[in-house]
Amino acid sequence: MANSPQARKRARQAEVRRQRNMAQRSALRTFIKKVVKAIRAQDKDAAIQAFKEAVPQIDRAARKGVIHANKAARHKSRLNAHIKTMA
């Protein structure tokens, strides 16, 4: 346990940030899962719509440091490639 006032404050801040990051990461995963679900259902229109909703969320997570920028680019690229290969 932190003993100094400064260390106690840093522990509080770290916990708040951890919870915020977890919530943002969870929301991000939900948006990605919606796209994947539409792709698996072979519903191209729904997949495109879900992808358009997911891209800003992915970019926002990368900008805030929740995920790495390269991971964001990889997710967008792979989801878009799957959508393009749909009949």
UniProtKB/TrEMBL annotation:
Q: Name one Pfam family in it.
A: Ribosomal_S20p
Region of interest: Disordered: 1-23
Q: Which GO terms describe its biological process?
A: translation
Gene Ontology MF annotations? small ribosomal subunit rRNA binding; structural constituent of ribosome
Q: What InterPro entries does the entry give?
A: Ribosomal_bS20 (IPR002583), Ribosomal_bS20_sf (IPR036510)
Q: Which domain of life is it from?
A: Bacteria
- One GO CC annotation: small ribosomal subunit
Q: Which UniProt keywords apply?
A: Ribonucleoprotein, Ribosomal protein, RNA-binding, rRNA-binding
| Keyword presence, rRNA-binding | yes
Q: Does the keyword rRNA-binding apply?
A: yes
Assigned protein family = Belongs to the bacterial ribosomal protein bS20 family.
Role:
Binds directly to 16S ribosomal RNA.
Which PANTHER family does the UniProt record give? 30S RIBOSOMAL PROTEIN S20 (PTHR33398), SMALL RIBOSOMAL SUBUNIT PROTEIN BS20C (PTHR33398:SF1)
- Its protein name is Small ribosomal subunit protein bS20
Gene field:
rpsT
